[in-house]
Give the backbone structure.
Amino acid sequence: MLTFMEMLTSLTTAAGAIVLCPLVKNLLPSSFLNNLFSIYEEYFCTPKITLFFRTDCGLSDNQMYDVASTYLRTKIVDSSKYLNVGKAVRQERPTFDIVPGAEVTDSFQGIKGLKWKLHVEKGFDGYERLRYFTLSFDKKFKEVVLESYLAEVISRSKAIQEAERALKLYSRDFVCGTPGREWSSIILEHPTTFEKLAMDPVQKRMLKDDLDRFVNRKEWYKKVGKAWKRGYLLYGPPGTGKSSLIAAMANYLKFDVYDLDLSSIHSDSALRRIFLSTSNRSIMVVEDIDCAKLEDREKEEKSAQLILKKPKFSLSGLLNFIDGLWSSCGEERIIVFTTNHKEKLEKLDPALLRPGRMDMHVHMSYLTMDGFKQLVSNYLGINGDHQLFEAIEALLKNKNVTPAEMAEELLKSEDPNVALRGVVEFIEQN
């Protein structure tokens, strides 16, 4: 009868043979192989610990996945044979990322063999089902890795992100088939600033002051028991600069922008997941809110009672994320709604417009003389007076011209006199 040691020796020999012979490995059941290698590792290998870094963490994104991804960019060039190389439009340098299945070996404080690996699992349909990093190391280094190494990884990742810092515009248009990822992004390089905006200077100053108060009152929000967020409604005719104002706000605050298309939302739970996946210090933009297919709360109740066709998502669900319990999940966030027809929102539900949801209403009006002078400064370089300004001011008082229309006219000539005479003719014919 074989002794225990003889049995282990036989198992070790068998495990080695299987590793060296792919044909044998393919013929044996995976459950048998897993048990065999588990016994081999337990008695003949140093015990290992493996940490998993998934893309998702409950209802929100897992920040540790992004931390690991960023950190490993500095390691893969030296320790990996295969690299993903990417470069966005107007990005100065290419970035390098680990490819699925590749391993990156790191060291820390004399500890070698800290092995990172990116795993991607696909479903039967061929779409990506799961993506995650693993970090494997000897069990005896557990305390150092958990308490010191991961802290170093987080610190290095933050430094890298700050060095690469660029405003981003997030969209949900290109995330199909990427589980755990609600957004994709590009670099936001919109040139508009508050100084270049063709809007009423008093209103512009009020808005900047309001933004300054918001970002500087973290402790105040905590003291009064309010979620650290702010809502804005930008309303006015098309072409009056609502999108440009959002870009100016992002550039002023250095906040990323999330462009949310409500027509792509299928349920309140999906809306909740999307809101939770946004980062702090960001602007969530919901354009043309009056065009969203929202049912008022009375109709929602009737639909629920009659068990009729359920709307894509409900107004009450949207209100809850703006001003309910879920609104406190995150901080230093701004939500901007835009509409061409404010009166439609009032008919839908006046509660949508109240403070706490849309705290500040900003009317984007037709072009005023102050706005016109700003456009002339931007396009023609005229910062003083001009002989045609008086005639143009008189015309603007009686005609509705949007900043977008005026900007198009000013593009027609670089000669100030020619351009301004064209402006007079345009307004008279409008």
About this structure: The longest helix spans residues 142-163. Confidence is low (pLDDT under 50) at residues 302-308.
